[in-house]
Design brief:
Elements: E1 2-5, H1 6-14, E2 22-25, E3 30-31, H2 32-40, E4 50-51, H3 61-64, H4 90-99, H5 103-124
Parallel strand pairs: 1-2, 3-4
Length: 125
C-alpha cells in the first residue's frame, strides 16, 4: 500500500480517483473543508488538526439563536381525546395499511411537535 500525504490524497479526490489502494498520513493542519472531504472518503482526520476561520462560518439563526434547553423526560398522560375523520383515497388507505402506520399515534405526535415548535417560536418573538 502506497503512503500519501493529505495534500496528495485531496488531489486524487478532486480527480475522482479512489483512495482504496493508499494509506493516507494526516499530520499537518487542514482546513475544515479538506478535512470533510478526507473523512467523506474514509480517511481519519484528528479533530485537533482541523482549522477554520470564524469569518468563513455561516450564521444560522435557527441554530445559533435559540436557547437550548432540555425538555421534560416525563411523558404526559392525555387529558382529553379528539375524535377525527380523515378523507383518504383508496390508494392512500392502502399505503397506510402497507406501511402499518398507526394513524392515531402519528397524528398525536405531529400535533404535539407542532405545538412545541409554535411555542418555541412565540418565545423568540
Amino acid at each position: 500500500m502506497k503512503l500519501l500525504t493529505a495534500k496528495d490524497a485531496l488531489q486524487l479526490i478532486a480527480k475522482g480517483e479512489s483512495l482504496a489502494d493508499y494509506e493516507v498520513s494526516v499530520t499537518e493542519p487542514l482546513d475544515a473543508v479538506d478535512a470533510f472531504n478526507l473523512r467523506k472518503n474514509g480517511i481519519e482526520v484528528p479533530d485537533e488538526l482541523i482549522t477554520y476561520e470564524d469569518e468563513d462560518l455561516t450564521y444560522d439563526e435557527a441554530f445559533d439563536e435559540p436557547e437550548w434547553q432540555r425538555l421534560s423526560e416525563k411523558v404526559e398522560e392525555p387529558s382529553f381525546e379528539i375524535a377525527y375523520q380523515l378523507s383518504l383515497t383508496e390508494d392512500e388507505q392502502e399505503w397506510l395499511a402497507n406501511k402499518k402506520i398507526d394513524v392515531q399515534a402519528l397524528l398525536s405526535e405531529l400535533l404535539k411537535n407542532y405545538i412545541r415548535t409554535d411555542r418555541l417560536i412565540q418565545r423568540e418573538q
